[in-house]
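Sequence design from tokenized structure. All designs in this work follow the same two-part layout: the structure record, then the generated sequence. An example of the structure record is given first.
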């Protein structure tokens, strides 16, 4: 647990509402991640391990490649909305902690063809695990956000797992045109000089060399800075894949 930080999907949403870009719409995604390491068609396979992995209580050094289905509900036959493709590896010798490097590749609905990239630490036996969204493609270009994972089901014998994910990603901020000073090009004899338009010219003060200036520092009251809170509520768009069961 992060010291002094409240975890969980609701806590993350509350934190987002306090950000300077709180007026932006926030896309919220909810799905289930199926990590199957056994059977005829595993979706996660070990591709590397160290000499000490078998002796480690945390399987330190083990690396797996994944192509895990993402579904609307936790049931294995639930509608697939995408895939989690990438790698994870055991990167902690003291507890079960994975380094997650993967893409959420959406294959259904309005986000079909778009991706979100995740890079973070996943202490799998914690109730809630936060991992950063560090980028994306398609609708999610330049995405930044938070993916919160919570184990829904885990088989201690086989290692198969179903994990619930809540993802929050602010939509890109609208572009703002910033006025820039226009420039005039004046032709000199052999040199072109670009000068910006200036409304007023600086005139240096006239100083009498016979007069010694005396400057007294004004006493300034040490008042606390005024903080203006944004009271406007977050304009969020709840986007969730509808549950469908076969």
């Amino acid at each position: 647990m992060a010291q002094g930080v409240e975890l969980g999907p609701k806590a993350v949403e509350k934190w987002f509402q306090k950000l300077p870009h709180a007026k932006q719409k926030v896309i919220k995604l909810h799905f289930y991640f199926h990590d199957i390491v056994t059977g005829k068609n595993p979706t996660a396979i070990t591709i590397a391990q160290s000499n000490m992995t078998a002796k480690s209580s945390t399987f330190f050094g083990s690396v797996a490649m994944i192509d895990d289905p993402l579904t609307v509900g936790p049931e294995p036959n639930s509608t697939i909305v995408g895939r989690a493709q990438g790698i994870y590896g055991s990167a902690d010798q003291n507890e079960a902690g994975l380094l997650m490097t993967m893409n959420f590749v959406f294959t259904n609905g309005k986000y079909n063809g778009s991706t979100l990239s995740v890079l973070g630490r996943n202490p799998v036996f914690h109730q809630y695990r936060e991992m950063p969204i560090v980028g994306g493609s398609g609708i999610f270009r330049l995405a930044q956000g938070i993916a919160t994972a919570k184990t829904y089901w885990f088989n201690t014998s086989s290692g198969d797992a179903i994990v619930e994910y809540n993802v929050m990603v602010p939509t890109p901020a609208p572009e703002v045109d910033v006025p820039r000073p226009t420039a005039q090009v004046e032709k000199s004899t052999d040199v072109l000089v670009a000068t910006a338009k200036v409304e007023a010219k600086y005139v240096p003060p006239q100083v009498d060399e016979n007069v010694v200036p005396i400057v007294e520092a004004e006493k300034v009251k040490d008042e606390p800075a005024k903080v203006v809170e944004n009271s406007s509520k977050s304009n969020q768009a709840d986007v969730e894949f509808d549950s469908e069961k076969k």
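The longest helix spans residues 9-17. We note this feature because it recurs in several other targets discussed in the main text.
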